Amino acid sequence: MSGRLAWVVAGFAAMAVGTLAGWNAGLFEAVAQPPALVRALLVSAMVLVALRLLAEAIRRIDASRHVAPGTADARDLAALIRGVRLVFLAVAAASAAGGWLLGSALPIVTALLIAGVDVVETGFLLIVVSLRGERPAD
User: Fold this and answer.
1) What is the span of the domain harbouring residue 101?
2) What is the pLDDT of residue 2?
3) Where are the alpha helices (DSSP H) in 24-35?
4) Environment class of residue 99 by beta-carbon count within 10 Å: exposed (0-12), middle (13-18) or buried (19+)?
5) Out of 13, 46, 82, 118, which residue is the most buried by the measure of CB atoms under 10 Å away?
6) How many of the other CB atoms lie within 10 Å of CB of 104?
7) Residue 38, exposed/middle/buried by CB under 10 A (0-12, 13-18, 19+)?
8) Consecutive sets of 10 residues in the chain, 138 residues long: mean pLDDT of each?
């Protein structure tokens, strides 16, 4: 359970950083507009991260589709939730890449907020699923 709570705390931290960064435009504009070579490397890295996350999400979601109806358990549901989490994290990575590509802080702040909200939301869902799976059968 502590690992799941750590993810929830990390999600809240990302939302807090995104919110605080939105209030300090000067600092965050400096982060969004590093030298051209650094920006190119950041854009490339974020695009690769987004593609990798999307590929893993597709793999996990596809694996959960092959479970026979009525036989899914908490572990299958958790795998599906993690797959959906990876889709949203891929969107966040693509948003960050767009921010560095454009030299704008807004997509980077948006990426932090997307990632933070998604991690918090799916963290809570995974906690609920794990608690639901630990109940004794009636």
Assistant:
1) 2-134
2) 65
3) 25-32
4) buried
5) 46
6) 16
7) exposed
8) 71 77 74 90 97 95 76 72 91 96 89 87 80 54
